[in-house]
Amino acid sequence: MESVHSDARRAVITRVAEGHWRAVADDREIGRGEASRRPDGRIFLSIDAWHGVAFDRLVEAMLAELPRPLHTMVDGTDHDSTARWERAGMAVRRREWLYQLPTTSRPEVVPPPAGVTLLPAGAADEGPLREAYAAIRAEIEAGVGWAAMPVQVPAQPAGAPMDPSRYAVAAGPDRYEGLVRVVARRRHARIGLVAVRADRRRRGIGRALLADVLAALHRGGIDTASADIDESNVAAMALFEGLGGRRAGSGLELVIR
């Protein structure tokens, strides 16, 4: 064990490429670090180190070279990793709950309000979809702020093309009232953004739209979907739990400013 400690203390930390660091001791790699910039501009760090000392050396080098604020995500039950990042000066900013939703055995679903039509993923027109997304994002920014969204829900850069195959929408008479972002791969799906325009909330649109998405996933052979929800978003947790969702884990976001 002492030799492992010694190797880590002698490690040479090198920035080998943009956003990438390596820890090398005695010609052996004993750790690596990465900094990635999300579409909303936030920089997230990740470190894979064979020993705690190597972790400390890598995070020290990365924090010294990168502009702040800097973020990272850790498993909510991984107390050792959390302590390492806190030792480096990071503080817990918030918790996200991982929810698992069965695509079957849902409670009775209330249909959407009169005048609202549910369109499955891939059926939306990009223009109205982009307009609805921009309006909803502006409402979120003006309220809790987009930074309160789950880390895995990146903000769509202005002007970037949108992929209608990833969005199911609730269409009103003259605009899209709500949307769900869903990415399906093989036998699992990730539910991203579930949002309704502020002046159309509390009418059952979000519940009907999400239930319709789950039913479509089931018809496609997918039995389970997952989603991350900020622990402060009580309405979203109630929506998911009302459709059979259950907590399956958590993640902590830490930040240093």
TrEMBL record:
Pfam families the record matches: Acetyltransf_1 (PF00583)
InterPro entries associated with the record: Acyl_CoA_acyltransferase, GNAT_dom
Domain named N-acetyltransferase: residues: 116-257
Gene3D superfamilies found in the cross-reference section: 3.40.630.30
Entry protein name: GNAT family N-acetyltransferase
